[in-house]
């Protein structure tokens, strides 16, 4: 069983119409891209029919699976994470192991679609992300870049030292978190995210092992 290109095109058409988003403004398309002979062909067919008719420049495409493999049920989330990191860093990362356009895919041959094979500067705002499931399930999300600039490049206000909350089931887990903080500039958003994470009950994260506590003794 494989996804239907016709049904995926229908989903794309309806999605952009309902959201009022212009397909011509799409900067990049993060595809499902499993590497299967039929599945990829159907997906590329849908992307071409949905986006390439009135485009004046190639639509950049790619799939995080070329970098990390197929993560099964988490593959859609991994694709979204890739796009968000791309937006934050200002670059679209290259796909691995792509050398020549696939024979029989006219849009790849004529340049309507272009697989990202080198680090590309981010210039637009809209990105489409597709995830196709076994049996023909289709999902698509439109992401828009946040234009709001960080205050003071994300650094916390003031110079008063503060405690960073970190928790792990092993000493190594805590050490990884702390080294991550040490190797990057202090970012108020990341600190806030870590605090929220540790204040939430996490399935499988037992109250044992190694924990740094806040001043009042809570984790």
TrEMBL record:
GO MF term set: fatty acid synthase activity
Domain Ketosynthase family 3 (KS3): 1-145
InterPro entries assigned to the protein according to its UniProt record, in alphabetical order: Ketoacyl_synth_C, PKS_assoc, PKS_Beta-ketoAc_synthase_dom, PKS_NRPS_Biosynth_Enz, Thiolase-like
One BP term from GO: fatty acid biosynthetic process
SMART domains on file: PKS_KS (SM00825)
PROSITE patterns on file: KS3_2 (PS52004)
Protein name in the entry: Ketosynthase family 3 (KS3) domain-containing protein
Lineage of origin: Eukaryota, Metazoa, Ecdysozoa, Arthropoda, Hexapoda
């Amino acid at each position: 069983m494989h996804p239907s290109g016709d049904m995926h095109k229908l989903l794309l058409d309806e999605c952009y119409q309902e959201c009022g988003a212009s397909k011509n403004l799409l900067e990049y398309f993060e595809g499902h891209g499993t590497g299967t002979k039929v599945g990829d062909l159907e997906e590329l067919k849908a992307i071409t029919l949905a986006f390439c008719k009135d485009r004046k420049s190639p639509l950049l495409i790619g799939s995080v699976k070329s970098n990390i493999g197929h993560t099964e049920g988490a593959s859609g989330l991994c694709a979204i994470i890739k796009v968000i990191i791309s937006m934050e860093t200002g670059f679209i990362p290259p796909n691995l192991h792509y050398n020549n356009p696939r024979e029989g895919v006219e849009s790849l041959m004529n340049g309507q679609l272009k697989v990202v094979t080198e680090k590309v500067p981010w210039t637009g705002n809209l990105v489409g992300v597709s995830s196709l499931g076994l049996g023909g399930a289709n999902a698509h999300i439109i992401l828009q870049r946040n234009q709001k600039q960080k205050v003071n490049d994300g650094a916390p206000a003031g110079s008063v030292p503060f405690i960073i909350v970190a928790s792990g089931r092993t000493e190594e887990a805590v050490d990884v978190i702390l080294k991550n903080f040490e190797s990057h500039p202090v970012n108020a958003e990341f600190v806030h995210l870590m605090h929220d994470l540790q204040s939430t009950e996490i399935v499988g994260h037992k109250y044992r092992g190694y924990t740094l506590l806040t001043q009042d003794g809570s984790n």
